[in-house]
Amino acid sequence: MLHIKPIFSSLLHSKSGPLLLLLQIVLSVAIVANASFIIVERLSLMARESGIVENEVFDFSIYHFDKSTDLVVQDKRDLELLRAIPGVIDVAPSSMAPLSGGGWSSNFTLGPEERAKSTPNTGMYMSDEHFIDSLGLKLVEGRNFYPQEITTELLEDGGKMIVTKAFVDKVWPNDSALGKSVYMGAQHFVVIGVVERLQTAWVDNSNVEFSSVLSVNYPADYKRYLVRAKASDIARLKEVIPEILHKEYPSRVIEGFTTISERRIEAYRDHELMATVLTMMVVLLLLITSLGVTGMVMFNIQRRTKQIGTRRALGAKKRDIISYFLVENYLLCLLGGTLGVLLAIQLGQQLMSLYSLPMLALSYPLLTVVGLFVVTTLAVYLPARKAAKISPATATRTV
Amino acid sequence: MLSMKNISKVFKTDLVETHALRDFNLEVSEGEFVAVTGPSGSGKTTFLNIAGLLEGFTHGDYFLDGINVSNLSDNKSAAVRNEKIGFIFQGFNLIPDLNLAENIEVPLRYRGFSAKERNRRVEQALEQVGLAARMKHLPTQLSGGQQQRVAIARALAGEPRFLLADEPTGNLDSLMARQVMELLENINQAGTTIIMVTHDPELARRAQRNIQIVDGQVCDFTMYQANAARSASHGSVDKLVANAQG
Question: What transmembrane ranges does the database entry give (chain B) (predicted)?
Answer without folding.
Answer: none
